[in-house]
Specification:
- The structure is a homodimer of 126-residue chains.
- Chain A is 48% helix and 11% strand.
- The first copy, chain A, has six helices and three strands, in the order ααβααββαα.
- Chain A has helices spanning 4-8, 11-22, 27-34, 38-50, 70-79, 89-100; strands at residues 25-26, 54-59, 62-67.
- Chain A has a three-stranded antiparallel β-sheet.
- The longest helix of chain A has 13 residues, at 38-50.
- Chain A is elongated and about 50 Å long.
- Chains A and B meet through helix 1, helix 2, strand 2, strand 3 and helix 5 of A and helix 1, helix 2, strand 2, strand 3 and helix 5 of B.
- The first copy, chain A, binds a DNA duplex (30 and 30 nucleotides) through residues 1, 10, 12, 26-28, 36-46, 60-63.
Amino acid sequence: MESAFEILAEPNRRAILSLLVSSEQSVGEIERQLQMSQPMVSKHLRVLRDAGFVESTVDAQRRLYRLRPEPLREVDDWLAPFRRLWSAHVDALELYLDRMEPSTATEGSSRTRRNPNRKGKKGEAK
Amino acid sequence: MESAFEILAEPNRRAILSLLVSSEQSVGEIERQLQMSQPMVSKHLRVLRDAGFVESTVDAQRRLYRLRPEPLREVDDWLAPFRRLWSAHVDALELYLDRMEPSTATEGSSRTRRNPNRKGKKGEAK
DNA sequence: CACGTATATACGTATAAAGGTATATACAGA
DNA sequence: TCTGTATATACCTTTATACGTATATACGTG
């Protein structure tokens, strides 16, 4: 278990992360809201913490968990090259970024270039 | 194996998808570039196709695989609520989108609202 | 200090899936 | 039709991990 993607493969872990979007939560609160056993919650939180997705704070016997951005940001970054596949306005968006931060713009706006080669062939597609 | 996240948990599958960003590829081409056995490539492509990440076209004995947007888009959508955690300029970006496509703007720019509640407690964070 | 609450961890079991090897299927060309 | 190339699939083994149950640790209160 190392890559952020493997961590996110587990539905309960994604649910925990989604819970934490609104605010930090204790183990017990997560347990109740997600209807999972306490050891399961603790174990998933352990995995999430080891992977940097969450951090915890002690409050008497309770532990309050909250989100940390890094690993999810990595996932978001991995997704970047694929974004051009959907929503055409991404192009407008990138154009906007090209203007915002010239540091990131490697070449003119070559970022917006679309996939050129497509050899027309017979269809299977199924 | 169902959710897009489980599919992406496998590093070789992510590598295949990344390969396909530039253009469609045959099984053999993927096999060579990623240095994996032919059956492995075929099996991973099978999984990717069943999950909708790729589609294929027949070209004589070869099969050409190319990306399909939907599942990756889902992942991107899941990520949306977390984006506020990083890059402050996302706010500027969303503001820009608010101006671009009024259709998506549900309310004023309530999209930019930030997480309010945070009860200060003693520190563990480890 | 005994007790209740809150959380973490150890241990065992079952299942899923990744990878290998061998083989099947499909197509093209001599 | 025989042969080579390209891809898919079947079968097997191994490993990882999710979950349950039981127990340990830590803190607060009477």
